[in-house]
Design a protein that fits this description.
about 250 residues; four-stranded antiparallel β-sheet; 7 helices; rod-shaped
Length: about 250
């Protein structure tokens, strides 16, 4: 009668006999993973938070354009790490990463200050234009109101009956124009009242964790699987040699 074989059980039994080797290699890999965590250099990430103000500036409000504009101002080893993100409406973050804490922090502050200054200059230019527009509207309102007063007096006096219709027409037109100027003036005054200057809010720096536990567990899992494969291969070679030997006999 042919003997019944249980290959899976045979492999499990072999692995169980070699369990100390399996466990020992797994622990060794965990130790190596933990050691590598300490060898890996610490990476510092400095982040600047900038309030962009509520001015209209397309070039300095798009992360990609900001990166292209300021990366050339940074050292070569840091320019590639410049990361620009929109944190919230009217808030931009600029981040740099590197192994030297002082260099990372100083360059982050430098590029953030330059960015803030550029925003402020653009904001001031727009503010100046709005102020001039406001002054022009105020003058137009005053002149139009003076004209309304003059034509109102002419209509009341009825000094020239032939021109009365013309005076009334001009008066109505001036009142409509004055109303439009007042509405535009109120709008620009509202915009000026809400105008907020760009400002560098904060610069923070953090260091990367060495991920000791995570690296140790990953290395242990890798070591366990590798040794398991090697043990299965080992057992397969033993079985193959045994089968070959039996055939030769």
């Amino acid at each position: 009668m042919e003997k019944i074989k249980y290959p899976v059980y045979d492999y499990i039994k072999f692995i169980w006999k070699k369990k100390l080797l399996l466990i020992g290699f797994t622990i060794l890999c965990m130790v190596i993973g933990a050691a590598l965590s300490y060898i890996k250099p610490t990476i510092y990430t400095s982040t600047a938070l900038v309030f962009t103000g509520n001015g209209n500036n397309e070039k300095l409000s798009k992360p990609r354009l900001i990166t292209d504009t300021y990366k050339d101002e940074l050292p070569e080893d840091l320019s590639g790490s410049l990361d620009v993100k929109i944190a919230e409406p009217f808030q931009i973050t600029l981040s740099l990463s590197g192994s030297d804490k002082k260099t990372v922090e100083s360059n982050t502050k430098k590029v953030a200050e330059q960015y803030t200054n550029d925003l402020t200059n653009r904001f001031n230019e727009q503010l100046e234009v709005q102020e001039k527009y406001k002054n022009a509207l105020e003058e137009k309102v005053i002149k139009t109101e003076e004209a309304i007063s003059q034509y109102t007096q002419l209509v009341q006096e009825k000094s020239d009956e032939n021109k009365l219709d013309h005076y009334l027409e001009v008066l109505i037109n001036k009142e409509e124009v004055a109303e439009k100027y007042r509405a535009d003036l109120e709008e620009v005054e509202y915009d000026l009242a809400l105008a907020e200057t760009p400002e560098l809010m904060d610069v923070t720096i953090n260091q990367s964790s060495n991920n000791l536990l995570r690296n140790a567990l990953l290395a242990g899992a890798f070591g366990f699987q590798l040794m398991l494969v090697l043990l299965v291969l080992w057992k397969y070679i033993i079985n193959a040699r045994r089968a070959l030997s039996q055939r030769q006999e």
